[in-house]
Automatic annotation (TrEMBL):
Matching InterPro entries: CARDB, Ig-like_fold, NosD_dom, Para_beta_helix_rpt-2, PbH1, Pectin_lyas_fold, Pectin_lyase_fold/virulence
Stretches assigned to the CARDB domain: 281-377
Pfam families: CARDB, NosD
Protein name: Cell surface glycoprotein
Domain of life according to the entry: Archaea
Domain Periplasmic copper-binding protein NosD beta helix: from-to ranges: 34-228
Signal peptide location: none
Length: 581
């Protein structure tokens, strides 16, 4: 044969193939709107719901039938031995898809049917959701069976493939295999009190390959095995390498083993951004919460794993997460995969900077994908300063023995001073400005020394390093030189160079001496041993504010206002003294 003949044969062959494709018959789908028998091959499409019907509703008695439910429902009346869709017997290549079946004894039933497909079926409230009897080489995929007695029931049926089916909350079994072997069952979701019954060898996994599995894990392998009480094998297995496959096999019995069970494990995550502190806004000093305030601490714990978590213990610590630092504990009942839960406690604030550490599942009782991201911490600053304000008024009456009034003096000048100290008495004549020696000379580092004695230096127990929380920061420029000064007259004696702050807003350093309310800081030289310097002989601090009517804290009117460190109290007490002029 020459080249021309070869070419002619090729052309004839191409023409023949083309003609063959064109003349293939096309069958239009037959619409179904009521129960019926299907006796002919072809495509059938349900066009409406069929509700409250008797058995059988759809019976297929032909080969090569495609029945598409189009998402509609075929519903029965819970009668015994009833069928939603029944195929058989001795037919092949029957497909039933995209359908909901409910309230039947058999939702979908294949009897002596081979090489067929059941896919996209939702079977709810049937005795048997999907039932195969003496049916081989069928494919059952992408179906949901819930609230049936049995989700999928195979009797004397072999060499079938079951994949991507969800069998949950079925009262007797998720899957029931009776005299059925050599079936391949993988990538299914089981979550029933009894997940299976099996009496012949079957294959329960495929080869591990990359791909999204039925629980959105990253690998295909076996099945997901859960129990409603969250103690199922897949819910409690370990997955050290994070491949979403359990590290060990799951043996249903000696001849039925899932070698690659899917892992659906929670992963609790806590970050600094998920920790919050809340308190009444009026309980704030210098931008920080006051001492002895009820602070609400909330931790939002996220579950970024694939599995749900329950009974999550959350521990709160003041400092590192160690037992000795524990403040309180809380329990979150449930955190579903992809959701979050809140743990909340109440803490009575303590002066200083506190690194509040929080740890979810502190005892590591839950199996997780990653235990290292369960804890976080956040700083809360508690101000060492408290403010006091109010009104002073006075009436003094001197009377004789007979009750006759000799002198009746009413104080209404709004002049005088208020003193605050940690001791019940001091010598007014021995008061001097902090930062000055008894002779009036400049003393070095007196403000820093005061902070040290009151535990208010950065790094101490009470005032760990946040701005505006110590005497040095508020009253001085560098620990020696005052920021602002004024003079006070105490019982006729003028005390110059008194370091002062604005009582209403201690961090406002502008024109402090002209503020309505100011607080000055003094020391009592009574205990001085002769070096005339504060801080080495147990000398006491005294805070002073002038009486002056005006508007201050809370935009209220009063005639005195002062800010003092909480730590000056001695055994829980501070003492107020008033000089009226």
């Amino acid at each position: 044969m020459n080249k021309k003949e070869d070419m002619r044969n090729v052309i004839i062959g191409l023409i023949f193939v083309s003609i063959t494709i064109i003349i293939l018959p096309v069958y239009a789908a037959t619409g179904v709107n009521s129960c019926m028998y299907i006796n002919d091959s072809g495509s059938y499409t349900l066009t409406t719901d069929i509700l409250d019907n008797t058995s059988p509703c759809i019976r297929i008695l032909a080969d090569n039938v495609d029945f598409d439910g189009s998402g509609y429902t075929i519903d029965g009346i819970d009668e015994a031995d009833s069928y939603g869709v029944q195929a058989g017997t001795n037919y092949t290549n029957i497909t039933v898809r995209n359908l909901t079946v409910s309230d039947w004894f058999y939702g979908i039933s294949y009897q002596n049917t081979s090489s067929g497909r059941i896919t996209g079926i939702t079977a709810v409230s049937n005795v048997n959701g999907i039932y195969l009897d003496n049916s081989n080489n069928n494919t059952i995929t992408d179906n949901t069976q819930e609230l049936n007695n049995i989700g999928i029931n195979l009797t004397s049926s072999n060499n079938n493939t079951l994949a991507r089916n969800i069998m949950t909350s079925n009262s007797n079994y998720g899957i029931y295999l009776s005299s059925s072997g050599n079936n391949t069952i993988y990538n299914n979701h089981f979550n029933n009190t009894n997940n299976y019954n099996v009496d012949a060898p079957n294959t329960w996994n495929t080869t591990k390959i990359e791909g999204t599995n039925i629980i959105t894990g990253i690998n295909l392998g076996g099945n997901y095995w859960a129990y409603p009480n969250r103690t199922g094998f897949s819910q409690t297995c370990t997955d050290v390498n994070g491949d979403d496959i359990c590290d060990s096999s799951y043996a249903l019995d000696a001849s039925n083993i899932d070698y690659l069970p899917l892992a659906k494990i929670p992963d609790l995550v806590l970050t600094q951004d998920n920790i919050s502190f809340s308190y009444v806004l009026s309980e704030v000093e210098n931008g920080e919460v006051k001492e002895n305030v009820n602070v609400t601490i909330n931790a939002a714990v996220y579950n970024r794993g694939l599995g749900d978590a329950s009974n999550i213990n959350v521990s709160f610590y003041d400092g590192s997460p160690e037992p000795g630092n524990n403040i309180a504990n809380a329990t979150i009942t449930d955190i579903s995969a992809g959701s979050s839960g809140n743990a909340t406690i109440y803490w009575n604030s303590i002066i200083g900077t506190h690194n509040i550490s929080i740890k979810a599942d502190p005892e590591n009782t839950l199996i997780e994908t990653d235990d290292s991201n369960n804890n976080a911490s956040k700083i809360i600053n508690v101000s060492a300063w408290q403010k006091y304000y109010g009104n002073i008024s006075g009436n003094i009456t001197l009377a004789g023995q007979t009750g006759n009034s000799l002198i009746n003096w009413s104080w209404d000048t709004n002049q005088g001073n208020v003193f605050v100290s940690s001791i019940p008495s001091f010598d007014y004549n021995n008061l001097h400005a902090l930062g000055r020696k008894k002779n009036g000379g400049i003393a070095q580092n007196n403000f820093q020394r005061a902070d040290e004695l009151l535990n208010m230096t950065p790094g101490s127990n009470n005032a760990t390093g946040f701005i505006n929380n110590n005497i040095t920061q508020l009253f001085s420029l560098n620990g020696t030189a005052p920021r602002n000064v004024t003079s006070f007259t105490v019982y006729g004696r003028t005390i110059d160079n008194v370091a002062i702050v604005n009582s209403t807003n201690t961090t406002n350093y502008t024109s402090v001496e002209n503020s309505t309310f100011i607080t000055g800081i003094l020391w009592d030289t009574t205990k001085d041993n002769g070096d005339s310097d504060y801080g080495d002989d147990g000398e006491e601090l005294v805070f002073i504010t002038g009486i002056n009517a005006g508007t201050g804290i809370g935009n209220s009117s009063h005639n005195y206002e002062t800010g003092i460190p909480s730590t000056i109290r001695n055994e829980g007490n501070v003492y107020f003294f008033v000089e009226l002029k």
